[in-house]
Amino acid sequence: MDSLEVSSRIWNRALGEADTAQREGDKALRALLLFHNEAMSAGVLHALGYFSPEQLTAAQDGYRFYGFCAIADLIASPVDEDEDLDASAQREGEFDNAYHAVIPVDDTIAKAFEAHCLSHPEMYAPL
In the chain, how many domains are there? Predict the structure, then answer.
């Protein structure tokens, strides 16, 4: 199996059900992708309210694991749930713009993952 096929299978595995045999790389990828998918479909602020504190911490760890520290910091930003509608809409735009400045396309994550997977295959459960 070539390295591209291996990384593709690990990526697809991360999108499936959580596995008890996961290693650090698998867990980081899964947590990052769960948050990313929600943020891309409904917005970063929605994703911040959608996940539990434990899931948000895992997402932060996942983003840091792959070098996206600015996104981990964004996830840690406080959100004022009592702000008015206009301020909330402005804040939503700020969060989404900050996210897209670091991760403009899905391929940004894919490339970071593939590079990490190639250089640290031991951090992912065997296929």
Answer: 1
CA angle 98–27–32, rounded 5-degree value: 15
> pLDDT tens digits for 35-93?
999 999 999 988 998 999 999 999 999 999 999 999 999 999 876 666 554 556 778 88
Boundaries of domain holding 41 = 3-123
| Residue whose structure tokens are 């899905």 | 106
In sign, the C-alpha dihedral spanning 7, 8, 9, 10 is positive
3-state SS record for the chain: CCHHHHHHHHHHHHCCCCCCCCCHHHHHHHHHHHHHHHHHHHCHHHHHHHCCHHHHHHHHHHHHHCCCHHHHHHHCCCCCCCCCHHHHHHHHHHHHHHHHHHCCCHHHHHHHHHHHHHHCHHHCCCC
